[in-house]
Amino acid sequence: MNKDARIFVAGHRGLVGSAIVRRLGELGHANPITATREQLDLRDQAAVNYWFRANRPEYVYLVAGTVGGILANSTRPAEFIYDNLMIHATVVHAAHLYGVRKLLYLGSSCIYPRLAHQPIEEGELLSGQLEPTNEPYAIAKIAGIKLCQAYRTQYGSNFISAMPTNLYGPGDNFDLTSSHVLPALMRKFHDAKAQGDRSVVVWGSGTPRREFLHVDDLADACVFLMERYEGDTHINVGTGVDLTIRELATMVGEVVYPEATITFDTSRPDGTPRKLLDVSRLHGLGWRHRYELREGIAQTYDWFLRHQSEARMATVVPAASEA
Ligand code: GDP
To answer: Which residue's CA is the closest to the ligand 1 atom numbered 19?
Structure first.
């Protein structure tokens, strides 16, 4: 891609968006176009149209949205469906209206049925019932895929979709009421160590299996797909390796506070039993992840220790938050 290309990263303050901005910077795209949520409410079609008309992006990374872990999804379902449906629709529509050359939309592995065949191939989409703990979010994310495909079919838009597995890394959300499991566990072990408390409580039974991808690997994959992928089908992005929540907790404990002991609060939900992505298509295109999990956890904890004052540690319920 031309170094002067006008690239819009929607959601640049979030975990994914900030990683994409870093990756683009490494590749010589020093100043992608961005807008804070104070400058632009992505749920407002008129405002988004106006902004596209004024800024004329040629390439769009649509990685904005309201995101969160199992608790936030259960307690704030209206925000999760409304914000995400609206953001996907307004940005895709404006990208069509204002002639964007290519758009990459980022979904989530929760689009797949709760009991999908493992590892989950892209073709499993809409083949069964969704996991109830995040169904509103998943429905919005599925709508995003269908938006891209519909605009591609009707208008010939070059809009592609990537479906990442569970993400973590620098810039993550460490607030225990809205975070995903990996940063939550990191925070719990860290706080226990600081308070001299040896016991760390892990939600659920510890038996669900999850796959984790470092956000810098995801950003690299997004840039790779923006440059090399033109297909109609969404593409899974992951490592192809998973582990149980118990194994994850042990690994995070070994990095952060090896003296701690783990207990399970089985009154908390487990969510989907397993969601391991089949990443053969992505591997076939020539992309592989770089960070192995233990190394990524150590790197993220190092970031956390250096950035505690600016890390997201408490819930801010914004007008339209960013992924
Ligand atoms: P999910 O992948 O959409 O289910 O989202 P999460 O990352 O929030 O949760 C993944 C799994 O980790 C679930 O089985 C949770 O019950 C479990 N888990 C264990 N401890 C925690 C915790 O402290 N926070 C969160 N968010 N999940 C936890």
So the answer is: 203
135 CA from centroid of ligand 1 (Å): 15
Radius of gyration of the CA atoms of the chain, in A: 19
Rounded-to-integer distance, Cα 142 and Cα 125, Å: 8
| pLDDT of the residue at 315 | 53
| N residues, the chain | 323
Q: Enter the tokens of residue 183.
A: 């940063």
User: 88 CB contacts (<8 Å, ≥6 apart)?
Assistant: 62, 65, 105, 140, 143, 144, 147
Centroid of ligand 1 to alpha carbon of 214 (angstroms): 17
CA of 269 from ligand 1 middle (Å) equals 8
**Residues of the chain where predicted confidence (pLDDT) is lower than 70:** 315-323
Which structure tokens are listed for 323? 């992924």
153-175 per-position pLDDT tens digit: 999 999 999 999 999 999 999 99
Contact (CB, 8 A) for 323 and 67: yes
Ligand 1 pocket list (CB less than 6 A): 69-71, 110, 134, 166, 179-181, 184-185, 202-204, 208, 210, 245, 268-271
